[in-house]
Design goal:
This is MbtH protein. The protein is α+β, with helices and mostly antiparallel strands. It contains two helices and three strands, in the order βββαα.
């Protein structure tokens, strides 16, 4: 494994927003680990697969007719 490859942790906040954060540095206030760590590309793919609705929570809860 290349030592220059940086690893990230996927974070999520109370609004259901996702972010990538350097692994091992601790999550900033208001953010929690989402349970996935990997390269930037792997983490971005994970976010794309899991954060499919980027609307704010109040709009996600509203039924679309």
């Amino acid at each position: 494994m290349n030592d220059k490859i940086r690893h990230y942790t996927v974070l999520v906040n109370d609004a259901g927003q996702y972010a990538l954060h350097p692994d091992g540095t601790g999550a900033p206030r208001g953010w929690c680990p989402a349970g996935f760590t990997g390269t930037e590309e792997e983490c971005a793919r994970h976010v794309d697969e899991h954060w499919t609705d980027t609307r704010p929570p109040h709009l996600r809860r509203t039924a679309v007719l």
